[in-house]
Design a protein that fits this description.
The protein is globular. A two-stranded antiparallel sheet has the order 1-2. Helix 2 runs antiparallel to helix 3. The protein is mainly alpha-helical. It is 66% helix and 6% strand.
């Protein structure tokens, strides 16, 4: 039950922060938050995976990549059911963020 709460908390935190940033951008403000020399938040629309890898214009590749991401999420959930201790909580955090990104791929397509 705790793992589900972690997944939902991360998912909703992800959604809230993205909605906030999109609302700022819609108002005409550039989004560029400098936190320190290692962390900088800048809103970018990405059609591929992390760091723009596999960004292709074709819809078929976008959908195929989305199905692969969905399969990976299902695999992570399977591993979560088999995991215990710290590993389970770390997987819950990863799944929460991953589901947030999967939601964005489906919603903002």
């Amino acid at each position: 039950m705790k793992k589900l709460i972690i997944i939902l908390a991360i998912f909703f935190f992800d959604r809230i922060t993205k909605i906030y940033l999109i609302n700022i951008q819609t108002s005409g403000t550039d989004i560029d938050f400098y936190i320190n020399q290692f962390i900088n938040i800048y809103l970018v629309w990405n059609t591929g995976i992390g760091f723009g890898l596999i960004s292709l214009e074709s819809n078929i590749f976008y959908h195929l990549l989305t199905l692969i991401i969905l399969a990976i999420n299902i695999g992570l959930i399977f591993f979560l059911t088999k995991s215990k201790g710290t590993t389970a909580y770390m997987l819950a955090i990863i799944i929460g963020g991953s589901l947030g990104n999967l939601f964005d791929r489906l919603y903002y397509y």
